[in-house]
Write a structure and sequence with these properties.
alpha/beta; about 280 residues; five-stranded mixed β-sheet
Length: about 280
């Protein structure tokens, strides 16, 4: 009932209406404990498909320990050549450090995710995440999410100048091919290197990873140049957990995420990304 959007406070009232009695906390706890083995099996299930594209990101949720703090839950979505996608798993990481991401990515590889089959990994610009990607997936290209990148560049430009700068940056990141993108980047760098040096340095530093998607079939570009696919999954998670202010324990967080992400996979089953 919770995964369908009913708050924990209302579940008692619903069960009383449906079965004539309220579900007590002890009964709810017993039911929660019964799915422990099921969660463990799902988080460790073999990865048998050859995923060509992997989207990774972290979602921050409030967990109560000694104090209430926002903690990163590391997640991954895989996509095969047909356009079929799937949440591969998640791991409470505390923070998005290199060590946490290496642990999570290594776990995916041990379950069967083939590093040589993964053509492209799409993520934001978290330094620890990028270092972990290079370590665990040395054969894969890395695509820096362009939505995150544009937000980062905007912070390095005066607001009054942004509309023009944005249009010129779009000529780099959304060019018709890699050659044009690099030529447009050279023109932009030459024009603005003395005016907005921080902005130019940021573009130069990540140019290769921002246009990595251009090495792949054109029809896939709009799907693989951002982390929108995994972000949309997070949006649904946030909508469902909105009825809770915090998770009382890490275990409760894992239970709810398992339920929501498994439900998301069921909703995705048989629905291919169009024109992929």
């Amino acid at each position: 009932m919770f995964t369908l959007g009913i708050s924990t406070r209302k579940i008692k009232r619903v069960t009383k209406l449906v079965i004539g009695k309220e579900i007590k906390k002890t009964e709810a706890s017993r039911l929660n404990q019964s799915i422990k083995a099921e969660i463990t099996a799902w988080l460790n299930r073999p990865i048998n498909k050859k995923f060509s594209y992997v989207f990774i990101d972290g979602i921050f949720l409030k967990i109560r320990r000694k104090i209430i703090s926002k903690e990163a839950i590391l997640c991954a979505v895989g996509m095969i050549e047909s356009g079929e996608k799937e949440f591969l798993g998640f791991l409470p990481g505390g923070r998005e450090s290199r060590e946490a991401w290496e642990d999570f990515l290594t776990h995916l590889v041990r379950r069967g995710l083939d590093p040589k089959a993964v053509k492209l990994i799409i993520s934001d610009g978290c330094p620890g995440m990028i270092r972990a990607i290079k370590t665990i997936f040395p054969y894969s290209d890395h695509q820096h999410c362009l939505f995150h990148k544009m937000s980062n560049l905007r912070a390095k430009c005066p607001r009054s100048e942004w509309p023009l700068i944005k249009a010129k940056i779009h000529k780099i990141y959304f060019a018709l091919n890699e050659r044009d993108a690099r030529e447009n980047a050279k023109t932009f760098i030459k024009e603005y290197k003395d005016i907005f040096p921080r902005l130019v340095d940021c573009i130069k530093k990540d140019l290769d990873s921002c246009i990595a998607y251009m090495k792949h079939p054109f029809r896939r570009w709009r799907h693989i140049r951002t982390t929108n696919i995994i972000e949309r999954g997070f949006k649904e998670v946030k909508r469902r957990v909105k009825v809770m202010e915090t998770f009382p324990t890490e275990e409760s967080c894992i239970r709810i995420l398992y339920s929501l992400l498994r439900l998301q996979n069921e909703n995705w089953e048989g629905k291919l990304v169009r024109n992929f």
